[in-house]
User: Fold this.
Amino acid sequence: VSVGSTLRSEQMGQRGAILSIALDADAGRMVTGDAAGVVLVWKVQMPRGYVDATSFTAVRVLGAGGSQASLSGCAVVGLCLHPTLERAAVLAHKNTLRIYELRGAHRMIRALDGARCERLRMPVAFSPDGQLLAAGGSDGTLTVWRLSDGVRVWSQSLGAGSAVTGLAWHPTQHLLAVCGFGADCPVTMWA
Assistant:
């Protein structure tokens, strides 16, 4: 399989359709999440300058052990890497938002309460300084948590019947641009 070719989820060890992906090219690492709740951390090597099926090696399954850490049966619909690349945020159905470490034991660091996720593909993003995490909700709610203690520090509704479909942090400030699905959902900036 060369660049531009498709690796099927079955070839990659996933149990369902891959719905979320994050790539850290510098560290040669990729994280994928599927419809069955399987999150895999991959080692990616490109020794020949292109990617083929032998370039990917699964090195760890996240969220597989322990009842609180388990994502089994929860479709992974949002995934992002922390700016330090040492953590990943995983947003899944059944209002599940978890932070996992990507070094060492790959354990769950924290479960965050208040995520509203019952639809396919919801946005989640760390702030550039890594202190905050924002997640869009299928009910139109944007929620922000402080990572040091897991406290929900801010929550705002975009309006009834609107799902948050996109969010992006300003590269140097705690300024967040948000968009949603619906007639009454313009792009909104929050500070």
The first strand starts at residue 18 and ends at 24. Residues 47 and 172 are 34 Å apart (CA to CA). Confidence is low (pLDDT under 50) at residues 1-5.
